[in-house]
Write a structure and sequence with these properties.
EC number: 2.1.1.193
Organism: Weeksella virosa (strain ATCC 43766 / DSM 16922 / JCM 21250 / CCUG 30538 / CDC 9751 / IAM 14551 / NBRC 16016 / NCTC 11634 / CL345/78)
CATH architecture of the largest domain: 3-Layer(aba) Sandwich
Keywords: Cytoplasm, Methyltransferase, rRNA processing, S-adenosyl-L-methionine, Transferase
Main location: cytoplasm
Number of domains: 2
Subcellular location: Cytoplasm
Helix content: 25-40%
Oligomer: single chain
Number of strands: 12
């Protein structure tokens, strides 16, 4: 299955300029080819290429599926970006393949990085969606200060903060997931962990402290383990 991103209309679909160039120049695609096109919002269309140029490829829709492989949960990960971008990009790629719905980058007291190139992040996520044949593209939010993030209204979500402080009450993350929360916000801190003041502030905003295990992980490892845990908790037995 060849998957592309584009606009889907009643009976036809159109690839954007970047995808059109990739189809015509890189893949040497031609009229009559059968491809799959998604709008990144859950719609997947089986299409036949009808007209192509370097900047615009159009296709007739043969079959269409709504809510393609929609997950039974919504996972929003808020993470402090790592100093090395390759590590963060690895997490984003794998988390997209496994199943994540939204990502926010946090500026915390111990943050090692205070700038993010959103355009590059979106390209990495889109490539991961195409590789894993996903019709839902995770939403990418800009870098946000920690306190601005926890002040947002997330009434429909179960909110947790993963931290490493043994002297604070923390619930095992797997135990927490056994209650099957369907909308989850998970905060993952930087290498130096969240500060005591940040943890206190989050708990006052009704975030629950959780532990990801007895081992101490790198930021991206902790986040990836949490994404795996959420996905597995919703898989049928």
């Amino acid at each position: 299955m060849k998957l592309f991103f584009g606009e889907i209309h009643d009976n036809h679909a159109t690839l954007n300029e970047e995808e059109s160039h990739h189809f015509t120049k890189v893949l040497r695609g031609k009229e009559g080819d059968i491809v799959y096109i998604t709008n990144g919002e859950g719609t997947l269309a089986k299409c036949e290429i009808s007209q192509l140029s370097k900047k615009k490829v159009e296709a007739n829709i043969l079959e269409i599926q709504e809510n393609f492989q929609q997950k039974p949960y919504y996972l929003h990960v808020a993470i402090a970006p790592t100093k090395t971008m390759e590590r963060l990009e690895f997490f984003l790629e794998k988390a997209t393949e496994i199943g994540i719905d939204e990502i926010t980058f946090l500026q915390t007291f111990h943050s090692e990085r205070r700038n993010i190139k959103i355009e590059r992040i979106e390209k990495i996520i889109q490539a991961a969606c195409k590789q894993s044949l996903k019709a839902y593209t995770p939403k990418v939010n800009s870098l946000m200060k920690f306190h601005d993030f926890i002040d947002q209204d997330y009434q429909e979500f179960s909110k947790v903060i993963a931290h490493c402080r043994d002297d604070w009450d923390r619930e095992n993350f797997k135990t927490y997931l056994s209650t099957q929360p369907s909308k989850i916000i998970l905060m993952i801190g930087p290498e130096g962990d969240f500060s005591a003041e940040e943890i206190t502030s989050a708990l006052q905003k009704n975030f629950r402290g959780v532990s990801l295990g007895t081992q101490r992980f790198r930021t991206e490892t902790a986040a990836l383990q949490a994404v795996f845990a959420v996905d597995w908790s919703f898989r049928p037995e």
